[in-house]
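Researcher: Next entry: Endonuclease V (Deinococcus detaillensis).
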Amino acid sequence: MLAYVDVDYRSDGSARTAAMLFEAWSDAQETKLILHTTPQVAAYQPRAFYLRELPCLLPVLGPLADQLEVVVVDGYVTLDAAGQPGLGWHLFEALGQHVAVIGVGKTAFRGSPHALPVQRGNSQRPLFVTAAGISALRAASLIKQMAGPHRFPSLLKRVDQACGTSH
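Model: Predicted structure:
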């Protein structure tokens, strides 16, 4: 099973996590949507975003870890060419290094020339792909073949919308 995850932070200090489960990279429709609310989240810390987001993701993904092959996160797995761990790497480790993690960044992260640019649709702006537990080249290929005609794959857009609804 494959999963796309995203977290929406609320003004009251809570966060809503959405996980869309699916079977194949070309799927246009999820198999299942899981929503979870974390009542209180940590403050944002530059270059330590995982401290805020990981506690929101683990209650959703932890129970599914033995069923998951790959998790796609909104962000970076590693933050630089030296391999400084980002959110995706910390998630990879938290899941026992048994579930591959692909990071899809919407913007280039300073100091991250290692992130592979992926052009989708007619967009001139690439997505930036990093990975753990799977080669970055393979990860970039999988993101490129995801359903949807635009820069951002359809299911990734939908998981973003799902966690952001019901403010």
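Model: Note for the record: The longest strand covers residues 2-9.
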